[in-house]
């Protein structure tokens, strides 16, 4: 592990993650929680969603599974429970930050469809310049050394024409870059969205490596203009239309 991994607190993993790279299925409790979460989205704050038994029957799960569903919903601040006549589950009042957090957690709750994953990737890529800006201000020589260690792993994957190894090394390198930022919210959000990266073809590996190398050089040299230019989503080799020559 590089020095950037144990400075500034590193990056805490998201509360819900897809195994190593991606979760293949959601539990019945999670599926039920997402169904009720959708009801909350469509309801006014404080609106009554139904009794526990009504909602359990709607979701088609056992009592034990619904209890787990209820714990998930309450941990995300989505519902409140009121006992007695007229009680049941009610849509909770949510702050903007809570809504943001729930939207991110929903991406990890189950495998996102193509459109949803693409939206998440666009958000992740838009965060790149913010991370690079922080790196320009805060990267220490030890941080840059850690980034170059990650670059060496990428070079090995290119030499071996191994897209899987390249993807894993790319993930580690981006995580190290994010760890430099003092902005905990930015780090956490980026880390959650990072596993949505698309795999590269063998033909793309060299261009992607060169792009990363140029970015790290710009960060080390404090070349803000060059670094931010390379950080733009449309500057990446995989974002350029048509076949590349040379």
Describe the overall structure.
- This protein has helices at residues 28-42, 52-59, 63-75, 96-109, 114-138, 141-159, 163-180, 184-193, 205-220, 224-231, and strands at residues 48-50, 79-82, 88-91.
- The chain is mainly alpha-helical.
- Strands 1-3-2 form a 3-stranded antiparallel β-sheet.
- Strand 2 and strand 3 form a beta hairpin.
- Helix 5 packs antiparallel against helix 8 (184-193) and helix 6 runs antiparallel to helix 9.
- The longest helix is centred in the middle third of the chain and has 25 residues, at 114-138.
- Mean pLDDT is 78; it is low at 1-25 and 240-246.
Please describe the structure with a list of short key phrases separated by commas or semicolons:
single chain, 246 residues, disordered N terminus, 3-stranded antiparallel beta sheet, mainly alpha
Work out the strand percent: under 5%
Question: What is the average per-residue confidence, as pLDDT, rounded to a whole number?
Answer: 78
SS-derived structural category: mainly alpha
Q: Treating each run of at least 4 consecutive H or I residues as one helix, how many helices?
A: 10
Give me the count of strands: 3
Task: Tell me the Rg in angstroms.
Answer: 21 Å
Bin the helical content.
55-70%
**Overall spatial form:** elongated
Strand/helix succession? HEHHEEHHHHHHH
Distance between the termini: 35 Å
Q: Concise description?
A:
59% of the residues lie in helices and 4% in strands. With 246 residues, it is mainly α.
Any chance you could write out the topology, listing elements then pairs?
Blueprint (H helix, E strand, L loop, with lengths): L27 H15 L5 E3 L1 H8 L3 H13 L3 E4 L5 E4 L4 H14 L4 H25 L2 H19 L3 H18 L3 H10 L11 H16 L3 H8 L15
Antiparallel strand pairs: 1-3, 2-3
Helix pairs in contact: 1-3, 5-8, 5-10, 6-7, 6-9, 9-10
